[in-house]
Amino acid sequence: MNGFQLQQMVTDIEDGWRVSHFCTTRLGISRKMLVSIKNHGDITRNGQHVNVHDVLHAGDRVHVFFPEETPAPDMVATEGELDILFEDDWLLVVNKPPGMASIPSRLHPERSLSNYVLGYYRKQGIPYAIHIVNRLDRDTSGLVLFAKHGLAHHRMSLMQRSNELERHYLAYAPGNVPVQTIDQPIGQTDHSFMERMVRPDGQRAITHILNSRLVRAFDQEISLLDIRLETGRTHQIRVHLAFLGHPLIGDTMYQGNPLLPRQALHSASATFLHPATGERVRFEAPLPEDLRLEG
């Protein structure tokens, strides 16, 4: 089988558990994924096939064979360079340049970051589909996480929902922007499919401005902001800063000053517990040259 595989020994605490309970509780496999494994993969106990209702005993070795993954049939594998910050059997961490979409679209099906990742997978013989954890706007640069397989993606999604995936952004906004938490709902505007705005009937969105430092650039004072997202709404940082009256430098969609050819926003770091080891890890993407504005 070419799918992902996972092995684990049953402990005394788990003695008497059914296979299904062991898989969902101890291995973090979702029930939907377990059904897929039953139909298209396999589970063995000490080398022998078992049913999900079978009972386990201390010392048993459980081996889960996940179904083989295939990318969407219309997903194009594009060859090209990737700025890889980290890679193991569970994760791929990539530094996305500005001007590149995170995922393909109907009009642009070939040159998104996900297309390049799939091209890399094909070249390296990595037998998985694309599981993007965090998307960035086309003109936002920086760190993007890919889960290598379905189990890694499920565990990362759980961390996102419980706010255990800590994401920090660096941004430049005009004037003196104070440290604060912005808790304002965001929804789609009435006149644009793409544009968002703060509106009472929107989804709750929380942005923390953790640090603000005045710097001199473009012959004016602007704030270099360290921002942590608690939620992940479309255009969240851009909309919240525009709501404050400090739209990002270069963010013309939200009336930002066009001093740069793109919004001054960079996904700088991510901190979380590794989905396999539970070890706290931190990944950083360096600020690109076009956003080194001080001086």
UniProtKB/TrEMBL annotation:
EC number: 5.4.99.-
Active-site annotation: 137
Key words, A-Z: Isomerase
One annotated GO molecular function: catalytic activity, acting on RNA
Pfam families on file: PseudoU_synth_2
Entry's Gene Ontology BP terms: enzyme-directed rRNA pseudouridine synthesis
CDD domains tied to this protein: PseudoU_synth_RluA_like (cd02869)
Catalytic activity, reaction form: a uridine in RNA = a pseudouridine in RNA
Chain ranges of the Pseudouridine synthase RsuA/RluA-like domain: 91-242
Presence of keyword Isomerase: yes
InterPro entries: PsdUridine_synth_cat_dom_sf, PsdUridine_synth_RluA-like_CS, PsdUridine_synth_RluC/D, PsdUridine_synth_RsuA/RluA, RluA_PseudoU_synthase
Role, per record: Responsible for synthesis of pseudouridine from uracil.
UniProt similarity note: Belongs to the pseudouridine synthase RluA family.
PANTHER family xrefs: MITOCHONDRIAL RNA PSEUDOURIDINE SYNTHASE, PSEUDOURIDINE SYNTHASE
Protein name: Pseudouridine synthase
Organism: Exiguobacterium indicum
